[in-house]
Specification:
Blueprint lengths: L2 E8 L5 H17 L3 E17 L2 E12 L2 H12 L3
Antiparallel strand pairs: 1-3, 2-3
Length: 83
């Protein structure tokens, strides 16, 4: 299986516990679809080069995982953009 890296950018007002919950939630989605999270790194609050919704500071979390390409697109990316 190929190695993928995803970086999640979340709101700055997210608490540390909520950020850990986000990591666990998406890690569970990956493992449910046959993937394996190899490592996740919490990069903390970082200043971005541009504003998103009038905010420049965001929390960033990096995932390294092994999963089949089709499963990443359908289940992981599709889950992020559900309305």
């Amino acid at each position: 299986m190929p190695l993928y890296e995803h970086v999640f950018i979340s709101r700055q007002d997210l608490s540390g516990a909520q950020a850990e919950g986000l990591v666990e939630h998406f890690g569970q989605i990956l493992s449910d679809n046959g993937g394996k999270v190899l490592e996740n790194e919490y990069w903390g609050l970082k200043t971005m080069a541009y504003k998103i919704n009038k905010n420049r500071i965001r929390r960033r979390i990096c995932f390294q995982q092994r999963i089949m390409p089709f499963a990443v697109f359908v289940n992981f990316v599709g889950h992020c953009f559900q309305t």
